[in-house]
């Protein structure tokens, strides 16, 4: 077997996403042996020397840095993977692209469209490979949904319905800011559930059903003040705790989206349902290996919702894992995205979603927040060809 080429990874940030990405880099070669590139865990970077050293030893990174600029300057790093709070994405990505590094960035691309655009410009000017970790596209059932829609199985689409419901910020005692709670600090995150959770739903929706043309939204901040971990002061909350919006898609269909982190009884209920002229499909992250399908063309005597257990070898990605009937999990979506990224290097293609595609999702998020703030419909300006 010819020697593998290496892709030397420099990871910035080691939280929850640092773990999912590191796991994916370590496992991809075992399950996608045909790939010509293999990731090397070259360095992980974070401010706290002791904690980043411990993470490096636990996961097998060869070295550590405490200044991301030093990491980007290293000649022995090929790709920078950004797992920081959203307010750091732009500066790091722009510097990495200027240094000729490939850039993988956690979602959302940035806090605003204006902050994200120079990121798109930087990677395209430098001609470096780039992708954004909208990982739910790479759940086999979601990829299968894309194949069914693109094959015309559903026919003309009339409705798209999506939820992303969680419950972890309901306590008023939860501070904003600081380790793991930056998502509650508007300065670090840029928004609440809109950029954190609806961004996933919007990316999936546009990937499956095309561009979102305009939106009408309502947001709410239920807990108005929280202690700020950084200042210790009781501070006004600037994020949206919950968001509901409806929209027109470019293809004439209507969309309804809801997200909250106050929904008792739901830990990560990410769902979509799509209704077409011939058929409907629906999917739920809590049962991620299944895609439900209804086809009006079935014999009326047996017409009804059927469950496709998306674990057969001819289902997307599933030939890489176990045997039919045995499921995979959330963590496999990151392995799939790393595999697709490595393949895109080999084939000189793109690994979707690119920064440019993720900027379109950013435009919808921003239009949603503007619509809610002005209690009016907002055009998104999305260009989703
Ligand atoms: C928290 O809401 C969170 O971790 C998001 O930030 C992730 O993107 C989502 O996949 C799970 O929930």
Automatic annotation (TrEMBL):
Domain of life: Bacteria
Domain Gfo/Idh/MocA-like oxidoreductase N-terminal: 7-132
Segments forming domain GFO/IDH/MocA-like oxidoreductase: 144-282
Matches recorded under SUPFAM superfamilies: Glyceraldehyde-3-phosphate dehydrogenase-like, C-terminal domain (SSF55347), NAD(P)-binding Rossmann-fold domains (SSF51735)
Gene3D superfamilies: Dihydrodipicolinate Reductase, domain 2 (3.30.360.10), NAD(P)-binding Rossmann-like Domain (3.40.50.720)
InterPro entries, per the entry: Gfo/Idh/MocA-like_OxRdtase_N, Gfo/Idh/MocA_oxidrdct_glycsds, GFO_IDH_MocA-like_dom, NAD(P)-bd_dom_sf
UniProtKB keywords: Oxidoreductase
Pfam family, one: GFO_IDH_MocA
GO molecular function, one term: oxidoreductase activity
PANTHER family cross-referenced by the UniProt entry: BCDNA.GH03377
Protein name as it appears in the record: Predicted dehydrogenase
Gene source species: Arenibacter nanhaiticus
Lineage per the UniProt record: Bacteria, Pseudomonadati, Bacteroidota, Flavobacteriia, Flavobacteriales
